[in-house]
Design a protein that fits this description.
alpha/beta, Rossmann fold, two-stranded antiparallel ribbon, 4 helices, globular, binds aspartic acid
Length: 165
C-alpha cells in the first residue's frame, strides 16, 4: 500500500524559475512543483501544503514554527506516514535543525531543496523531491530524526551544512 506523505512547499530556488530575458531567478505566482504532482503520485499518496513561498533568507522562527505546527496538526488529522519539506538552501539547515530539536514524532521528516531553479538546464528540484518522497516513505528512515536529502545523499539535520553556493 502507498504511504501517505505530507509535502510542504515553503519556497526557495526549488520553487523558482529563471527569467528568460534577464536570467534572474525569481519566485513564481504558482509553484512549478505543484504542477508535477502526476510524476510524484507513483511513489506515494501525497497531501500538499504551501503555507508560504519565501526565499529562505526570509524564513524566521515564525515560519519555522508554522511548519512545525502544520506537521503536528496533519499528523493528528491525517495519520501521515512521513513528511517532505521543500525549502531554499541558504537556511535549509537552520529549519531542519529546528524541526529536529522540536519534533518528537518518529515518522520520517525530510527537508530538500535545489541548486538550480525549475526551468534551468539540469534542474535538480524534481529529482531531489522524488528522492525525498522515497526516503520519507521508507521504513529505514523511521526514528532517524530530521533528514536532509539532496543530490542522492541522505544527511542528518544535526550534522549537515551548506558549504558552497
Ligand atoms: N537563495 C535561495 C534560497 O535559499 C537559494 C536556494 O534555494 O538554493 O531561498
Amino acid at each position: 500500500m502507498k504511504k501517505k506523505i505530507l509535502v510542504i512547499h515553503t519556497g526557495g530556488t526549488i520553487s523558482m524559475s529563471e527569467d528568460e530575458q534577464t536570467g534572474a531567478v525569481k519566485p513564481n505566482e504558482s509553484n512549478p512543483l505543484t504542477k508535477k504532482t502526476e510524476e510524484l503520485v507513483a511513489f506515494a499518496h501525497l497531501i500538499i501544503e504551501e503555507p508560504f513561498n519565501l526565499p529562505s533568507p526570509h524564513i524566521t522562527p515564525t515560519e519555522m514554527l508554522k511548519i512545525r505546527k502544520l506537521i503536528s496538526q496533519r499528523s493528528l488529522t491525517d495519520d501521515i506516514d512521513g513528511v517532505v519539506i521543500t525549502h531554499g538552501t541558504d537556511t535549509l539547515e537552520e529549519t531542519a535543525y529546528f524541526l529536529d530539536l522540536t519534533i518528537e514524532s518518529k515518522i520520517p521528516i525530510v527537508v530538500t531543496g535545489a541548486m538550480r531553479s525549475s526551468n534551468e538546464i539540469g534542474a535538480d528540484g524534481l529529482y531531489n523531491l522524488i528522492s525525498s518522497i522515497k526516503v520519507a516513505a521508507s521504513e529505514e528512515a523511521k526514528g532517524k530524526g530530521v533528514l536532509v536529502v539532496l543530490n542522492d545523499e541522505i544527511h542528518t539535520a544535526e550534522n549537515v551544512t551548506k558549504t558552497h553556493t
